[in-house]
Amino acid sequence: MRALVVDPQARGRLAHAEVADPEPAPGQALVAVRAISLNRGETDSLLPEAPGGALLGWDAAGIVVRPAADGSGPAVGTPVTTVAAAGAWAELRAVDTGNLGVAPEGADFGALSTIPVAGTSALRALRRVGPLLGRRVLVTGATGGVGRYAVQLAARGGAHVTALSADPGQAEGLRALGAHDVVASLDDVTERVHGAIEVLGGEHLVAAYALLDKGGVLVSVGHSAGAPAVFDLGALRGDGGAHDRSLVSFHLLEERDIGPDLTWLAGEVAAGRIDPHVTWRGDWSRAAEAVEALLGRRVRGKAVLEIAPHGAH
């Protein structure tokens, strides 16, 4: 099969190559990949350090071409969206059936490919916050993949959503997704929040934690700012009526029961009730161009690479 593998000498450090087809384990389905979405965690952190020949990729959507030998998972021909720690950037991927979601027939594979990391991270982070109805929720990095999903899902859950975006041109779009307030700085947040979905890290994580109300929960799901989070002495004491606060995190790629969440999100995206906000889309021959756009912060939302059916070169 063809795959995008790491090539330190190539533009974007990626090149097409012929590699062996994956051999699925008994609990894995073989999926013909039709679309992949790129995440900044891959392009900013993994790709620059990966050795030559490595096959990366978390998110992929496609069609089952061989069901799991143990009888779990969907049948041949089922459209699916999938997540795993590697292997998405190829014509075929073997994926645990527990991390595979069934999609409606006719759904856009490009949109489906955005769901695994961004959509499921947002969904599971909001569950960590707890009941949302009538509560205030802050979303940092709201114009990114996780952020846009989080804004929509929090609003669907009945929260009053405050979205952080340094780009004033994004305010109208974020309000259309369900944000009640859009701020350019956390200094502009005037009321405490019950929950915070924090994707930037660094000083933003520290400032967002300080905004939590009594019993509030901050879920750290990223560190795209690339800076350490340094808390001042006493910052965790919880004075001033804001005690009993929590700061939690989770690593999505270590979880093995994502399938039901992927299936639900696929249905919502396919029905148009959630906007995945694909703002860059092209054939996977343009992978280097997409990587450069992500590294240059020129993509607001998700970047998707589409793959022709396996064998149609």
Automatic annotation (TrEMBL):
Signal peptide: none annotated. SUPFAM superfamilies: GroES-like (SSF50129), NAD(P)-binding Rossmann-fold domains (SSF51735). Keywords: NADP, Oxidoreductase. This is NADPH:quinone reductase-like Zn-dependent oxidoreductase. GO terms for molecular function: NADPH binding; oxidoreductase activity, acting on NAD(P)H. Pfam families: ADH_zinc_N (PF00107). Residues 12-305 form the Enoyl reductase (ER) domain.
